[in-house]
Amino acid sequence: MNSMLLKQKLAELKALERLQLEEAKTKEAEIQAGLKDSRYRASARPEQLPPDGDWFAWVILSGRGWGKTFTGAGWLIEKALSEPNIECAVVAPTYTDVRRTCVEGPSGILKSLPKGALRFFNRSNGQINLTNGSKIHMISADEPDRARGLNLSYAWLDEFAAWRYDETWTEGLIPALRIGQTPQVVITTTPRPTKLIKEFINRTDGSTVITRGSTFDNAANLSPAALRELRARYEGTRIGRQELYGEVLENIEGALFTQDLIDKTRLNSAPELVRVVVAVDPAVTSGEDSDLTGIVVVGKDALGRAYVLADRSCRDTPSGWAQRVINTYQEFGADRVVAEKNQGGDFIEATLRAIDRNVAYTGITARVGKKLRAEPVSALYEQGRVSHIGEFKELEEEMTTWVPDLGMKSPDRLDALVHAIVELGLTYGSDADRFFDSLAPACSKCGFPVAYDAPNCRNCGMNINGLPGGTSAAFAQVQPLSDTTPTIINEASIGFPTV
Question: What sign does the CA torsion over 22, 23, 28, 31 have?
């Protein structure tokens, strides 16, 4: 009797296993059929579908609103569901970007998955498990080591041009893309002329396919009011060419700043700051065609590095922009407002004090031209001593497009930035610079200090003090003040970059 019951139970278990297997096959068949009629396949424009050919990287360079997230999510889902038990990855500048935009967003992975394809989504460890056994790992580009040890077949890399570390790609993802006959990546990004973007564009070996597009390609799915505002604000500007039309813009010859200089030190947050100032470059008039009032917030830390915290520039009446200045002053806990008073004189201070009588204020009289004021600030960027906390598109466009001596429109935001950094004492003439200057000999022609062993003055080009040996010969003229041989300290020995 026990033997008969056991056989019956075994038969029932085998029947259940067959039923479960048939159900799994049926469900998988439904998912595969659903891929053919998925939201991605049903709604994608031709340029949003994967290109033909044996490519490694499909690089989509397009304006905002083109449908990059929709395309990246749709492609990655197809790949993850077409092959069972594989590993894929979705990577964005930060983990918040991955979760909020690429995974949980209205065009993200969770909204694009066919019904029944999701087994579970573990938000805490950043993993999406699918019913066919495949996994999608969520990775922040801010953590270059997160991809190490993964065995990836496919990856979707979002806003690639905004990644802070090239190593996330070169040392993390490339070694991880090692499973299958043809590992592939889709790169979706608003373009910038970064080193890696240029490398992809310039490839001629057939491994890369470039797709370009503009915001207006997707006009049917965007708000008409939003499109009108975008055109009104950005049409005809470099920002518009990049952000709306997806152009990769090269640096402008003669500009004091480049996007590379700004990008290489960009941070998400600032350290503890010892000073914060709000700098103002006031407009003379307040009409629709008047200049902006530049309002820029900059702080510095104890090591003498500057951090650009905010750009609150506006076109407003004197009372309107003054109120904005005071609000910004209070918001950031600034210790001073500085403003150029060449045009407004005492009126600027009076307008600010009418709102906050206790505001700490310093008026600046600009005695030299904009180029001479901006050049020392440009040098600080070259030395890596200024970081932008986040992105300031309008300010950065002004910085990278203004060319001195061409009679271009006054750079209001840039002027305010320069005022702030000068007020913080970071440009030439500060106490720190005077101290270090005293450690090197001066050029007999222009007085500029030059590093030890430099043959010529880096400011005017003259041989130092007319001596054949350059600064080494100049140092040979130094007489010790005591019996102790003086120790020569110079820019090179203290780690300052030499030119």
Answer: positive
